[in-house]
């Protein structure tokens, strides 16, 4: 397969509601789409899950555009590629910038699957035709508002509720949720808002029977998380500390977490995601697929990877309508009773809505 040319689209899509975490609020999603086109004119699509500002990690949308334009796209254009895995080697000399690498790799995976006429999920080794879905709810000004959204999402059938917490918006909020919903599968995501000095607060969370507490300590940290996990009954789940296979291996070896949140962009693409999946499977570490407030294209890639055997906890691949008035794929992603049917068409399995893409594009460029 030859990548004839690549197109980059900078998108600006307004979410239906703002989303607040311990590090900030986001409503306008400025992200990139990558379209890889082969010598026969067939297209594959990928999404770069960065935000406008480097709040979640060091990458941001303009840095990824630069990375793709200057280094990554020139490494693949006009090149003969045997398999999407080849991109790992072509990108190896460039450090990190995982979301940019992942976006181009995703486009090539989709293109490769389409050229073979197989669904991406199958090509990755997926074994499920249906996946289980949870939902992630942002921090709200008042807990009543959060309880209303939980009620709505429980009624919609989502299989687990994740709430965002930060110092001062933690124990009391969780206590109120548990008072109203003693049995729902519940977890809390701190997005690195605590340190070991907050041990008492983190230990107090043991009383809420949480499925897990996600990334309580510094992004990138493994050592303090290992110390923390030893003192908690609640499983620690790592998100912002896992950027590679080596991070996952070390986290498991050190006991930094009992669960891993897989984000394809954060680990540099589907090839790495699959390697980490296989490691977790071997080591009996449960895995689930996190979200980055993706459009339908990134969501479709998340759905595909979630079909692998060891994705044994509900992921954050919620319905398109949770985020968007109108998504850029057809049909849109629909979760019913907390389950989603994996598409069976070749590649990502959804059609691309070019009209919606064009309507939300603020800049684009083709690279020959
Ligand atoms: O619904 C989703 O896509 C998940 C949303 C979500 O929880 C997150 C999105 C983006 C960055 C973080 O705030 C975060 C997370 O930490 O998992
Ligand atoms: Mg998280």
From TrEMBL:
The active site is at residues 164, 263. SMART domains: MR_MLE (SM00922). Mg(2+) binds at residues 189, 214, 239. Its cofactor is a divalent metal cation. One of its GO terms (molecular function) is racemase and epimerase activity. Belongs to the mandelate racemase/muconate lactonizing enzyme family. MenC type 2 subfamily. It comes from the Bacteria. It comes from Virgibacillus oceani. Residues 143-235 form the Mandelate racemase/muconate lactonizing enzyme C-terminal domain. Coiled coil: none annotated. It catalyses: (1R,6R)-6-hydroxy-2-succinyl-cyclohexa-2,4-diene-1-carboxylate = 2-succinylbenzoate + H2O. Gene3D superfamilies: Enolase-like C-terminal domain (3.20.20.120), Enolase-like, N-terminal domain (3.30.390.10). Pathway: Quinol/quinone metabolism; menaquinone biosynthesis; Quinol/quinone metabolism; 1,4-dihydroxy-2-naphthoate biosynthesis; 1,4-dihydroxy-2-naphthoate from chorismate: step 4/7. NCBIfam families: menC_lowGC_arch. This is o-succinylbenzoate synthase. GO terms for biological process: menaquinone biosynthetic process. Keywords: Lyase, Magnesium, Menaquinone biosynthesis, Metal-binding. Converts 2-succinyl-6-hydroxy-2,4-cyclohexadiene-1-carboxylate (SHCHC) to 2-succinylbenzoate (OSB). Its EC number is 4.2.1.113. SUPFAM superfamilies: Enolase C-terminal domain-like (SSF51604), Enolase N-terminal domain-like (SSF54826).
């Amino acid at each position: 397969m030859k990548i004839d040319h690549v197109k980059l689209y900078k998108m600006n899509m307004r979410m239906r509601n703002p989303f607040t975490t311990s590090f900030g609020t986001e409503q306008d999603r400025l992200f990139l789409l990558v379209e890889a086109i082969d010598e026969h004119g067939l297209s594959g699509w990928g999404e770069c899950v960065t935000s406008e500002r480097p709040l979640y990690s060091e990458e941001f949308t303009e840095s990824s555009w630069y990375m793709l334009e200057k280094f990554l796209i020139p490494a693949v254009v006009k090149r003969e590629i045997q398999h999407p895995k080849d991109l790992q080697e072509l990108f190896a000399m460039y450090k990190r910038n995982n979301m940019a690498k992942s976006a181009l790799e995703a486009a090539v995976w989709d293109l490769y699957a389409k050229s073979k006429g197989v669904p991406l999920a199958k090509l990755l080794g997926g074994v499920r035709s249906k996946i289980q879905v949870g939902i992630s709810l942002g921090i709200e000004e008042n807990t009543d508002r959060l309880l209303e959204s939980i009620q709505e999402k429980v009624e919609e059938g989502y299989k687990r509720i994740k709430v965002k917490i930060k110092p001062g918006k933690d124990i009391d909020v969780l206590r109120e949720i548990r008072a109203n919903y003693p049995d729902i599968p519940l977890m809390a995501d701190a997005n690195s808002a605590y340190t070991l000095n907050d041990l008492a607060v983190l230990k107090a969370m043991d009383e809420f029977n949480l499925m897990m507490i996600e990334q309580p300590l510094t992004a990138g940290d493994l050592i303090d998380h290992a110390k923390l996990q030893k003192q908690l009954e609640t499983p620690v789940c790592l998100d912002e500390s896992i950027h590679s296979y080596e991070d996952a291996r070390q986290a498991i070896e050190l006991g930094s977490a009992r669960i891993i949140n897989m984000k394809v962009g954060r680990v540099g693409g589907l090839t790495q995601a699959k390697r980490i999946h296989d490691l977790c499977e071997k080591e009996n570490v449960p895995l689930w697929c996190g979200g980055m407030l993706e459009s339908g294209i990134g969501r479709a890639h998340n759905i595909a990877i979630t079909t692998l055997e060891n994705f044994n906890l509900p992921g954050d691949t919620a319905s398109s309508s949770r985020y968007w008035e109108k998504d850029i794929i057809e049909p849109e992603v629909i979760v019913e009773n907390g389950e989603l049917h994996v598409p069976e068409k070749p590649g990502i399995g959804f059609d691309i809505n070019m009209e919606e893409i064009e309507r939300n594009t603020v800049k684009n460029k083709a690279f020959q």
